């Protein structure tokens, strides 16, 4: 199985490929801040077999969101709460989409059964 969702050559968005220095440069966040965010549970990068942090495109997007919240003057505890709520909201939205799809399938099956 491949880590690449398509033929573009880009790794999957959740695949950790960037070391901490590269992630810091790409995100504009200091290396020490990355470590601090991890200690506070705001970010959980993958680890290589040797224990090196590996940041993914998803991690970089999360870092962008963290930076926006820091720039807005929100403390780390507040950022953690906001990120958790946003994650919960995304999960609920995905579950709602799945339920709507299942509901449509059930309605279609009921219509088909009634028309026979």
- Radius of gyration equals 20 Å
End-to-end separation: 44 Å
Mean pLDDT: 90
Q: Give the SSE order as H and E letters.
A: HHEEHH
Oligomer: single chain
- Could you tell me the CATH topology label: Multidrug-efflux Transporter Regulator, Chain: A, Domain 2
> CATH class, please?
Mainly Alpha
How large is the count of helical segments? 4
Specify the CATH architecture. Answer: Orthogonal Bundle
How would you sum up the global shape?
elongated
**Within the largest sheet, what's the order of strands?**
1-2
- Helix percentage range: 55-70%
Number of strands: 2
Structural class computed from helices and strand pairing: mainly alpha
* Biggest pleated sheet: 2 strands, antiparallel
InterPro entries: DNA-bd_dom_put_sf (IPR009061), MerR-type_HTH_dom (IPR000551), MerR_fam (IPR047057)
Pfam family, one: MerR_1
Protein name: MerR family transcriptional regulator
Region (Disordered): 96-116
Give a description of the structure.
There is one protein chain. The chain is mainly α. It has a single domain, classed as Multidrug-efflux Transporter Regulator, Chain: A, Domain 2, CATH 1.10.1660. It is built from 4 helices and 2 strands, in the order H-H-E-E-H-H. The protein has helices at residues 20-27, 31-39, 57-71, 76-114; strands at 46-47, 53-54. Strands 1-2 form a two-stranded antiparallel sheet. The longest helix has 39 residues, at 76-114. The protein is elongated, with a radius of gyration of 20 Å. The model is unreliable at 1-5 (pLDDT under 50).
């Amino acid at each position: 199985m491949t880590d690449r969702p398509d033929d573009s050559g880009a790794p999957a968005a959740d695949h950790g490929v960037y070391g901490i220095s590269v992630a810091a440069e790409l995100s504009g966040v200091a290396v020490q801040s990355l470590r601090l965010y991890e200690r506070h549970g705001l970010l959980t990068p993958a680890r290589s077999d040797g224990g090196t942090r590996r940041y993914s495109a998803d991690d970089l997007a999360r870092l962008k969101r963290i930076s926006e919240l820091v720039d807005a003057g929100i403390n780390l505890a507040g950022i953690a709460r906001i990120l958790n709520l946003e994650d919960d909201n995304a999960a609920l939205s995905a579950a709602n989409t799945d339920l709507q799809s299942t509901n449509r399938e059930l309605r279609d099956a009921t219509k088909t059964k009634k028309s026979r």
